[in-house]
Every structure is written in structure tokens, then in C-alpha cells.
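Appendix B. Raw example, untouched.
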Amino acid sequence: MKTIIISHESDVDGIFSASIAQMRYPQGKTFFTSYGKDNILKISEILYNEVVSSQECGQVIISDLGLNDDMIDLFEDIFTFLKSNLWSIIWLDHHPWSEKAKESAIEKGSVQLVLDKTENVCSSELMYEKFLKGNAIAEELSKIAHTTDFFTKDQEIPPLPELIVFYKTFTDFYSRIVKLTNKISRGTLWDTEMQKDYNQYIKLREQAKVETFNKIKLFDTCNHLKVSLVPTSPYLQISLFSEEVFKKTNSDIAFFINKEGKVSIRRNNDVIHCSHIAKQLLEGGGHRFAAGGRLKSNPEDIDKVIEELKIAISNALK
């Protein structure tokens, strides 16, 4: 049976969950994407071309991507197309879904949902339980993904999160992470090629840290929360860098914003869920430890950005 695997492009959990799926379906084709209308439209086009050219039924496995309410209409078109061509869909995810999103997936596409309601399990763990329970390599991959996704620091792992960030700066990013996924599916977590790439990355990362620390802005909210506004760099892995930001600023929440207005949210305590803030932004999604979205404001207008984020935090705490 033809299999297409679609997973989140930005982190270890997305890549490892795809690797586990690839272990189960080695004949499958793997594609990576992220949130946002443009990304979903690209995936829609890929699926259309794959299904039409195959002239046979198959399955689509989606992992580590949430179905946000503002993307339901786009996905309903995908669901309808796949269903009409006798393709099944299995969607595994650990992000919070609204009831509206769940109903849409089930009713419009007969999607088999494998969702975590505890917010204590990552997508790689769901993939392991669903497809390769008992496989030693898959189990270890799921444990590593859990460590990186929930920042548990319960084991030392290779610097894969930063390597993924580095690869995103290349024009051939997708071919690089597909190659990385293939290696990981064979149990290879690090090799000389990765080390060579990582040595190049370290120099760029350290320069980016210095430049970014000089541009951080701090503000307080009416809820007495201290917030860091951080202009991010493509050479910084947000979750790891956030630890340095929190240590330096002693802030409760950090917003990492790029030039296009994309926002990554991290927290320094359990006063608030990152996903609750993200829901106040455009294309917002994530979980309690890490989330993201897009600004409505012009990212260059710092005063308006700060006001928008203050409102998002206030609404998230209601």
C-alpha cells in the first residue's frame, strides 16, 4: 500500500515521529511542513500530485501538527479529496485540538485520530505506541523526542535540535532533513557528516547570540509578569536559547520574533500555558511548554507589538 508521511519540519519530535513511521513503512514517501496557509497549500498540492499519479489507494500519516481552527476549511478540502480517492488518513498529534477540529477531521475525512489529552506525551511516543510498540530503536527515539519536546533534561543527547535549525538556513533544507530522517530511522543519531556541519554552525550560533542579547527588550504586563521580547536569528534554536534568555533576564515569558512577524513563545514557570497565548495570535498553536503564531501588528513597530502581546497574555489568563 502506498504511504505518504507528513510531519512537522522544525524540531526533533517532528523528525523522529517521521523516522518511526518510516521504519514501519520503509516504502513510504516523507514530506515536511509547518503551520500557516501557504504551507498547507503546498502540502495539498503534493498530496494531489501523489494521489493522482499513483492511481491506487493508500494512506496518509500526519504527525506533530495540530489542526488549528483557522485551517479547518483548507484541510476539509484535503480530507474530501483523499476520501473520494479511497485514501485513508491517520493523524497523530500531542497538541490541543478543539472539538470543532476533531469533528471536522472525523466527519469530513473519516480521519483516524490518535491524540494525546494529557499534554505529557509527544508525537513520537504516539507513533511508537501506534505502529512499532516493542521495537527497541523506535522506543529509544520516542524517549529522546520526549526529552527535547518537554525539556526534561533526563538524558544527554546529540545536538540534533540545533543541527535541524542550521539545516533550515540552506536552500536544500527539505532534502537535508529527509536524509536526516532516513539516518535516524536506521538508528544513526550522529555521524562525521553531522559533526562537520555542527562545527560550522557553532560559530554562527555564538555570533547570533551576542547580536541578539544586545537587542532584547523587556516589559511588564498588568498581570505582573515580566516579558522578554527577543528578535530571533535563524541560527538560534529557540527552546535551548530561551534558557539563556530566562537566566539573563529573569523573565516569566519570552517571545521570539522574526522579521516576518512569526512568533515563538516559551515560558519560565507554570503561571501560564504558551498555547493559551498562541491562540490569541494569528495561526496560533502549540502546547503548554512551547507554542507559536503570527503577529497582527507590523513586527517593526515595537510599541504596537508589545501592546498586542500584552493583550494576548491578558486574554490567555482569563
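End of appendix B.
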